[in-house]
Amino acid sequence: MNRFRIYGAVILSMVFWSFSFIWFKRANEYYGPITIVFIRLVLAVCILGSYLFLTKKFMKISKSDRRLFCMLAIFEPFLYFLGESFGLTYVSSTVGAVIISTIPVIATIGAWLLFKERLRIVNYAGIILSFCGILIFILNKDGSLSFNTKGLLLLSFAVLSAVGYNLTLSRLVGHYSPVFIVFVQNVIGGLLFLPVFLIFDLKPFINVPHSLLSFKPIIELSVFASCAAFILFAYSVRNMGISKANVFSNCIPVFTALFSFFLMGEKLTFQNIAGMAVVIAGLFLSQFHGYKPTIDDALVLTGKTA
Questions:
Q1: Where are the domains of the chain?
Q2: Measured between alpha carbons, how far is 12 from 14 in angstroms, rounded to an integer?
Q3: Per-residue pLDDT tens for 139-161?
Q4: Distance between CA 6 and CA 9 in Å, rounded?
Q5: pTM for this structure?
Q6: CB contact burial 269-294 (16+ within 10 A = b; e otherwise)
Q7: Which of helix, strand or coil describes residue 131?
Q8: Where are the alpha helices (DSSP H) in the chain?
């Protein structure tokens, strides 16, 4: 029964994160990317803050770590969500999920370059395979891009921001609880987004005819993707281990593609499916015992935390 609960928790967290791409697309029909992210962060801070208060798990941040927390928030949610949110306005939910799923691969390369971590041959093979899968997914037979260039560049910027987040986070994960880290970075991220929201999106936000239908996707993003999914995943990591739990993350683009196909009518060609399969195969190989536990801890949070 306990095993059923653990696996149920990790699968449900993947479902919530998969839906986040769809919920964003629906919210974007009414609100701009900055509005969606800002409100999502505010609601997430309220929910996570209440959780930490009720469980009495607030922690004191040491003076030497304050700079790291600020850097963390700049990378993610601030820069990461600017890239992801604006990128998703140009491409489909499925494309967004596939590009974002390469974060562990790029983070592994970053750890290898900066920390001189040794990788196995199977990890190198996985990295190359993932990039081949991306090319299969996004290129036409004549070599031209089959998806919006601006959207792909913005999503690639989000991936690079997540790598910076990962490398910064690896210096904090052993000292603070995951939920507390996410709470603090979302508080700082919300403060960073506040002036951007006031300058660029306040007037459009006021002029939009608000309704439960238009606001519902943002609530779903906050409650399920930013909070519930993360808490469920943290519970799974604690009970089944980091490596086993992180493998399930590779299913996110598959779930997103299926949900987008059935719920939003997004098309999936044989080439898309083949490319996605190659990307996921590469992800599994690239994460095959290739890096230190601290980097593993960071990868668990990267790209999933807001």
A1: 2-301
A2: 5
A3: 887 788 888 999 999 999 999 99
A4: 5
A5: 0.91
A6: eeebeebbebbbbbbebbbeebbeeb
A7: helix
A8: 2-27, 33-55, 66-73, 80-88, 93-100, 103-115, 121-138, 149-169, 178-196, 202-207, 212-220, 229-240, 242-247, 252-263, 270-286, 293-301
